Amino acid sequence: MHGTGPELRSTGLSLRRRKGTSVAATEVVPEDVVRAIRGIYREFMDSVAAKDAERLAVLYADDARILMPGRTAITGKSEILAFWKASLDGPVEQIVLDSTHIEVSGDLAYDFGTSRIVLKPPGEAPHEEKGKYVTVYRRQQAGDWKMVVDSYSSNG
């Protein structure tokens, strides 16, 4: 990750966190939630780099959806696993996420930021696609967080 770090928000309070500095406020996003979300997107990027669709699918709730331009929603664990298997067996080489904002309300949280996808279609040179994303997370009964909506669009 790079930049100044994600903006954190909880019930209306917005904070810009900078690495190595502290922020005084009356109410902040719980640090355990921030760590959990950061852990999910680190695991997401590591799973893509390892081309491991099953590791990716574990990050999603059973009823999750992936929303992308130009196609119908990818719904449920089995469709999500099939999507990632095809993507990782195909042109997707790397995905880099840079979260710029995290907000939490009860058992729901979301983050958004920028993305960079390295694609290498068969017989072609690799190229990058820059975009943005928003991901919604839900706390599970066991207390862990899973993605429930994963949405991405390119910048052009």
Helices and strands, with pairings:
Blueprint: E1 7-10, E2 13-16, H1 31-49, H2 53-58, E3 60-67, E4 74-75, H3 76-89, E5 92-105, E6 108-119, E7 127-139, E8 145-154
Structural write-up:
- This protein has 156 residues and is of the alpha+beta class.
- It has 3 helices and 8 strands; from the N terminus they run E-E-H-H-E-E-H-E-E-E-E.
- It is globular, with a radius of gyration of 16 Å.
- The two termini are 23 Å apart.
- The model is unreliable at 9-27 (pLDDT under 50).
Percentage of β-strand residues: 35-45%
The CATH architecture would be Roll
Helix content: 25-40%
Quick one: biggest sheet? 8 strands, mixed
Tell me the series of helices and strands, N- to C-terminal: EEHHEEHEEEE
Radius of gyration: 16 Å
What structural class should be given to the helix and strand makeup? alpha+beta
Mean pLDDT: 86
Provide key terms for this protein:
single chain; 8-stranded mixed β-sheet; alpha+beta; 43% strand; 156 residues
Quick gist of this model?
By secondary structure, the chain is α+β, with helices and mostly antiparallel strands. 25% of the residues lie in helices and 43% in strands. The protein has a single domain, classed as Nuclear Transport Factor 2, Chain: A (Roll).
